[in-house]
Amino acid sequence: MRIAIGSDHRGVDARLRLIGLLERLGNDVIDCGCDDTNPVDYPDVAASVANRVSDGSVDRGILLCCTGVGMAIAANKVAGVRAATCHDEVTAEMSRRHNDLNVLCLSAEMIGPEVQDKMIQTWLATGFEGGRHSRRVEKIAALERACGEKAREKAGE
Q1: Active site residue 87
Q2: Which residue of the set 65, 66, 86, 147 is catalytic?
């Protein structure tokens, strides 16, 4: 699997460690930074990962910041991205089964390395169930398209 991963300055150490895990699991990893612990704006990193997911150049993305919440908010602004902050193996698994989550957002500071590792392994191994969940994911995509159309109409006014 091809995976883009990025973090803000608070997630650098966790990201670097997780790159090793992802590679050991046989994934092709694209590191979207950041490079050090100097403050950066997390929406920039989220956009880098989310745009790769959106354009299909990667299969999935992983984002880390202090809580994971800011990254999820920013990543969800990109068309075709379904990002969420997960806190344990159950939320990671269900995000794939029911929501076809393609960007996993994690807390770099509130969840320990062992839990992060288990969550990522579960998230990567879990498939989308489809069925009734496909209808719901399509409704999310329809909302996204409708909002995009409204924004384009407003810009044209």
Answers
A1: no
A2: 65
Encoded tokens for 20: 């090793």
Match domain 2-129 to its CATH number in 1.10.260.40, 3.40.50.150, 3.40.1400.10, 1.10.10.10: 3.40.1400.10
The verdict on whether 133 is a catalytic residue reads no
Q: In DSSP terms, which residues pair with 48 in a beta bridge?
A: none
Which two three-digit tokens encode residue 89?
């193996």
For residues 62 and 42, give the distance between their C-alpha atoms in angstroms, rounded to a whole number: 13
The whole model's pTM is what? 0.95
How many CB atoms are closer than 10 A to CB 130?
A: 11
| Residue of 45, 108, 107, 100 whose CA lies nearest to 78 | 45
pLDDT tens, position by position, 40-99: 999 999 999 999 999 999 999 999 999 999 999 999 999 999 999 999 999 999 999 999
